[in-house]
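Form 12-C: Joint structure prediction
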Amino acid sequence: MNRENAPAPNEFVMPETLTREAIAEALLPVCQILLRNEARYPWVVLVPRRAQVSEPFDLLPGDQVQLWTEIHEVGQLLKAVTGAKKINFALFGNMLPQLHVHLVARFEGDARWPGGVVGVEQRQPYPSSDIPGWWTDLTARLALKDLTSP
Amino acid sequence: MNRENAPAPNEFVMPETLTREAIAEALLPVCQILLRNEARYPWVVLVPRRAQVSEPFDLLPGDQVQLWTEIHEVGQLLKAVTGAKKINFALFGNMLPQLHVHLVARFEGDARWPGGVVGVEQRQPYPSSDIPGWWTDLTARLALKDLTSP
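Section 2 - Result
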């Protein structure tokens, strides 16, 4: 890597593992939100743009509050735009140290209902990498909100 | 059920499914914390004592903040007392509507590392239902803290 282009030690760098498995993204005040390329479940990943943080309790206090604000807001909208029965939230990070949060919209009778889907099986990519309609709705509705903590 | 003993519609009732799978419990300001009877991983479940809430974003705003305060505090202590490599946090609730949060201490080389363990497999109970030392440490350290939100 060219020394001049290398990120500073405390600079956030989006892990390539996450972008490789995504087909769209959007920006929130603290998190980058990725559309995971998994056709069986509406699935987004929130990644706080903070370097060298792997546990939510390692974030600065203000970032912790903002992270949960964004998680709740995205979770609520994801449920609304997909009509899901339940949102599954998971912060695992066993394979990838950078803190990231999975939000998965679950439906009775989906491929693994009522079991867990995070860290369990191989992805099934969207057949044509077309962006699903729910993502367009979700990001449009997010753009209308002021997500900054009061 | 005797009508006089039936809980009021808005009264929290700990789901019997959760207590049946636990061998100890403690009280936090909003959550009841259960020691899950699963010998392979140090595992606790936080249950907000709020009736008819299944998604974290359905809690009242003050309860949301307190829930995450308790999750972070317990997660940090669970990591400290077990020496785990990573805490896994999961809010699924596909099988049980009452909001509950799994916190699992994970170690490189544990039974399913680096895969997910929540909602995936049958429990393996502690052989003798002895209370593990880490739980005693965890609850002793929790008791010394003021977990009320500032």
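Section 3 - Comments
The radius of gyration of chain A is 16 Å. Chain A has a mean pLDDT of 92.
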